[in-house]
Amino acid sequence: MSESFPATRLRRLRRTPAIRRLFKEVDVGLEHLVQPYFVVNGKGVQRETSPGSGLWQVSGDVLAEEVQQLHRAGVGGVMLFGVPDAKWSTGPLEPALREYLAAIELTRKVVPDAVIMADVCLCSLAETGHCGVVEEHRVVNDATLPVLAEMAVLLAKAGVDFVCPSDMMDGRVGAIRAALDEAKCQDVGIVSYAIKMASALYGPFRAAASSAPSFGDRASYQMPAHNRREALRELALDVDEGADLLLVKPALSNLDLIRDARERTQHPLVAYQVSGEYAMVRAAADKGLLDFERLMTELLVSMRRAGADLIITYDARRRAGR
Questions:
Q1: What rounded mean pLDDT belongs to the chain?
Q2: What is the pLDDT of residues 171-226, one digit of tens each?
C-alpha cells in the first residue's frame, strides 16, 4: 500500500471558502425565487398576516410597488392569489375578481418586464372554500373545468405571464389551454400544480387566502402523500395536456418526487416551499433552536439539488432586502 494513501482526497475541494465556492454544484440566487402575494381589495393595504410569517396581504397599489422593488432586486417573479371581499357562488367570475384584475393590470403597467404568475383556483373565491364547484356537498370535476378556464382567461387578459391551476381537477390543464388559445392568449403559459399533496402544511396559507373549506376536506382531489406512482401519473397527464411548467407542493416532504420528475421530463420544475414549511423554520429560530438563515438556505439548496428550476418561497421578499 502506498504511503500516500488515500489516493483520492475529496477534502482538497473543500479546503478553503474560495475553493468551496469554485466547485459549488448548485446555488440559490434571487433569480431562482418567486414571492407569493395575497391581493386584497382596498388601497394602501400592506400587512403580514403574522410577524415573520412571510405571508403578505397587499392591495393593488401596494402590489405594484412591491413587484417593482423585487424586480429591481433581481427576484425571479411573483405568484399572486386573489382574495376578494365578495365571495362567488354562481354566474360570471369577473365581478368578484374586478379589483384583483385591476391590481394585475396596474402592476403590469408599472413593471412591464416582471414575471407575474397567478393562481387559478376557486378556494379563495368561492363561498364554500373548496377548489371546485360544489353540488350537494360534493366537489364535481367536469362542471369546474369551464369556471377555471374562465378565470384563467380573465387573468391572462389582465396581463399575467403564467396561469397556475392548483385545483387538482382532472383535465383542467387541457381545458385551460384550449380556452387560452381560443381567447388568443397563446403566449400565456401554464404552471401546473402537477403534484399537490393533501398536506397538513397549508394552515397559514389558508388563513391568508381566506380559503379554509366550509365543510369536509380536500382529500378527494388533492393527492394522498402515500402514493408515488400516482403522483407520476398526474405529472405525465399534465405534460400531455400542455403544461409549460410543472409544480410540486409541498417541497420539503416531496424531494423524492421532484427528483423523479427531473429524471422523467425536460419541463422546467417548480418547488413550492409552502407556508407551513416556512412557519416551522421561523418558529424554531424564534425559540433559539436553530439559525434561520443557515437552515433556510440549506432547504432551498436541497430543492434546487433535487431538480427544481424555480422555488416559490415566502422568503424571497426578505432575501431581496424588503
A1: 95
A2: 999 999 999 999 999 999 999 999 999 999 999 988 888 888 888 889 999 999 99
| pLDDT confidence band for 127 (50 / 70 / 90) | confident
* Contact call for residues 191 and 247 (beta carbons, < 8 A): yes
24 given a catalytic annotation: no
In angstroms, the CA 105 to CA 82 distance is 13
Q: State pLDDT tens for residues 133-144.
A: 999 989 999 999
pLDDT at 206 (0 to 100) = 86
Strands (E), 159-307: 162-165, 189-196, 245-249, 269-272
Active-site residue, from 87, 157, 184, 249: 249
Active site residue 87: no
Q: How far apart are CA 292 and CA 59, in angstroms?
A: 29
Nearest CA among 203, 205, 206, 256 for reference residue 232: 256
Domains delineated in the chain? 29-319 (3.20.20.70)
Separation between Cα atoms, residue 222 and residue 274, nearest integer Å: 15
Cα 176 to Cα 188: distance, rounded to the nearest angstrom:
11
Q: Which of 152, 197, 199 is nearest to 177 (CA)?
A: 152
Q: Which residue has the cell 482538497?
A: 12
What's the chain's length in residues?
A: 322
Q: CA–CA separation, 59 vs 36, rounded Å?
A: 13
Q: Which of 24, 87, 184, 196 is catalytic?
A: 196
